[in-house]
Amino acid sequence: MAISTGDILGHTQVGVYLSVVDDILFYPRSLDETSIEMLTESFEMEMHPFLVGGSSLLGSLLSGNAKGIAVADIATEEDLDELTSFCDVVVLESGVNAAGNLIECNEHGAVVSPVVPQAGVEMISEVLCVDAMHSKVAGHDTVGSMLVANSNGVLAHPDITREEAEAIESVMKVPVMVGTVTFGSPFVGAGCAASNTHALVGSGSTGPELSLIHISEPTRRYAISYGGV
After folding, report:
1. How would you label 41-73 residue by residue, b for 16+ Cβ within 10 Å and e otherwise?
2. Strand-strand pairing, 19-21 and 103-105
3. H-state helical runs in the chain
4. Measured by CB atoms within 10 angstroms of the end CB, which terminus of the chain is less buried, N or C?
5. DSSP string covering 107-151, please?
6. How far apart are the first and last CA of the chain?
């Protein structure tokens, strides 16, 4: 897998701003041309400028695969129309709704934060057409910040437990490895965006950190509502 380093909108937390959904890279509309060219050359995949409810935090607000996309309920009708041109969409509703922080998925499975009720997990499973399960990662509910996954593997927060890792490997059907990014940050999902062939990691990531990253029909809409923690 090819790996590059860089920042997005001046921030090392590139996974907060970028969302890779199957063969599409969603990036903020405000991104400068130099950064767009860098992403285009690095990822060599379809690029789509987007905002969720006016927010550039796409990695925190979107998660999905080739079959479906989960998005926060701050998405406007125009946003949803745009997303449903790609695949089915499920909207996470209520105060805790950052889909990218609450879900990590690949083409095989999805790990969903415990703050989402079981009915929500079942809906995510249906829309993304994968097995889905509840799990914390390293004791945290924001699983999307703790993991970055593709169809080859999962990079996880270094404090993930053996039980969590085994469960994640079972549902996502790829091996789990641990590591850090951006000179020691354990929040690998926030600091890395990955497709099946390329990973972008925030600047300042060290050689040893980079060496561990190997994670080389009409559409429908649904809604999930749940309480926060």
Report:
1. ebbebeebebbbeebbbbbbbbbbbeebbbbbb
2. unpaired
3. 14-17, 33-43, 58-61, 77-83, 99-102, 118-128, 143-146, 162-172, 188-191, 207-211
4. C
5. SSEEEE-TTS-HHHHHHHHHHHTSEEEE--BTTBS-HHHHEEE-S
6. 37
Mean pLDDT of 122-144: 97
pLDDT at 222 over 50: no
pLDDT tens digits along 178-202: 999 999 999 999 999 999 999 999 9
Tokens read off for 93: 């509703």
Sequence-distant (6+) residues with CB within 8 A of 150 are 20, 106, 174, 194, 195, 196, 215, 216
d(CA 28, CA 39): 12
Q: Tokens for 147, please give them.
A: 């993991």
The CA distance from 117 to 97, in Å, is 12
Which whole number is the average pLDDT over 165-178?
A: 96
The two structure tokens encoding residue 76:
């406007």
Per DSSP bridges, beta strands 68-72 and 88-93 are: parallel
Angle formed at CA 44 by CA 154 and CA 47, multiple of 5 degrees = 90
Structure tokens at 117: 């009720």
For residue 226, is pLDDT > 70?
no
Residue 8 tokens read as 């997005």
pLDDT at 221: 46
Distance CA 207, CA 195 (A): 20
